[in-house]
Amino acid sequence: MGMERGKIFNKSSWPRAVARKWLNFPDDKLRFPSDFTTQERRKSCSEQDSSAVAPEDIGVEAWTTEKTRGLRVMPHSESLNLRMVVGTWNVGGKPPKEGLNLRDWLKSPIVADIYVLGFQEIVPLNAGNVLGAEDSGPAAQWLDLIQGALNSDDCNSSPLYDQHEASQKPRQSFSDLLALDDDNNVVESAPSWPGSPMQRQYCLAASKQMVGIFLCVWVRADLYKHVSNLKVSSVGRGVMGFLGNKGSVSISMTLHQTTFCFVCTHLTSGEKEGDEVKRNSDVSEILKRTRFSHSFRATTTGVQPPPPETILDHDKVIWLGDLNYRLSNGCAEMYELLRKNDWQALLEKDQLKLEQRAGRVFKGWEEGRIQFAPTYKYITNSDHYVALTSNSKPSREKRRAPAWCDRILWRGEGMKQMWYVRGECRFSDHRPVYSLFSVQVDLAKKNLAATNATITTATKPSVDATLSSSCAAKIQAEELLLGAETGIDTSLQ
Length: 493
Known about the structure:
This is Type I inositol polyphosphate 5-phosphatase 8 isoform X1. This protein is α+β, with helices and mostly antiparallel strands. The protein is built from 15 helices and 16 strands. The protein has a domain at about 80-150 and about 200-295 and about 310-440: Endonuclease/exonuclease/phosphatase (Deoxyribonuclease I, Chain A).
């Protein structure tokens, strides 16, 4: 179920958390910080089952006539277009300092409806954090900072829309950003902030932490009642192939009748020859091992298909994070190209693009055109790459060539990337990256015939069901081993 944000982690739960990490027990996919209130499910499921899901019945007629900032709906249309900002940032194991301004990272040339923000290394990746209990303190600090930025009462200084800065961007005009709407014959005036505080309020839909990887999804308060089937899943790919110093955190949700999956990853580091193969393997394992468990209520109602269980089952998927792909070896002219700011020539050596073109990773995924400088590795609190600094003794860090480690990819129909840029905050050795998407969301239920076919398929026994039973047995064994402890708070596990 969803949890109230800000809950303190009980020290007595430390042995339980450590056991779960060491034995690689699956996470409780129904427990995560959220601003949504816990609601009882329908009578078709267990009387004691509860979740942070909203009612599934949607008043389509009301939405087709509603005029809210960010929403673009045509009369009698079965879909609407939303604006979604996606951001990723490796913060170098440091908690946010007091007064840190997220304006540069969260700003958008147009008001957004959804914010998907992923972090890497929100805690130092030392043995205590990797093997011990989760340190949720920095995550709470980041959430408070984000909430303050998104819900600022000062409309003129809101990070979501800066008319002056947007007008100075030569890359895209405001009309370009609304091109998708023009295709649908929808006309909209320039964005503005409504007077109602509730209309400009953003709520935390869900967040999830695994060691240093942290993902949070924020939605406009007036959209929350249309969000359902919130689930989280994490996959460790670090020490011994399953601890959480590397890996992924994923959030699955349904908005109206469209399913979304957001995958925040921190892949294997290193720039030695062959390290890109390890990163490819990380992607493959994350796709294979990420699972979202659901009750069987969807398979018994006969009305709609069951919620997606894997990443690729979703209608729309965003993959973000520190993917750690570097420049391939043999780029002798790298330093000269860096000094000339010739990013397109350098991108010809980008491992991710090379591996993707060869069909070895992210086949069928899309990424926008990169027109910004490499995001890694900087000297902290400076604009200088470590590799180009000659005023210090040679070190291992000096040999780390600049690279586009921080990326955002997507797959699914009805998505159009409007912006793909980087921020300039000097807080860590990485620069943050963010993107603006125009996303088409279905309001009406999908074809019933296709739905029934999906339901029929879903009711057949599968290997995944057997694996789920095995995982349940593991958890029961854990309960027996650790059940002697009392007063354990499992809310953040």
